[in-house]
Input
Amino acid sequence: MVTDFWGPYEAIVAGDKQKCWAHLLRELDAPKNPPGADWDRFGGRVKRLFKEAIALRGKRDELSTDDYDLAIVRLENRALGLANEEWDSADARRLAKRLTSWKWITTLISRLISVTD
Output
């Protein structure tokens, strides 16, 4: 099941859930609040992780299962590190919290789900 970040969706019981990447990327391009000093750095790092996750998904057949799984873990650890940093920007803090609430990289690259879903 693919949803946006509306809170009531969390109550729905489903086997697999993915948050909508298009919504997250749109918010990176159009923050709700005036951007803080660290907004560009935060947005750039999230977008870079997204691009690296997509690239990794494309290499799935080239890597051994162990190497592929290790690469996923490394990307997810980077995402959690990014999420747990201190951010001045209110939007960066809000979106960083979202990165901790779901395994976005595993879901993105382990399924053939459109990156815009």
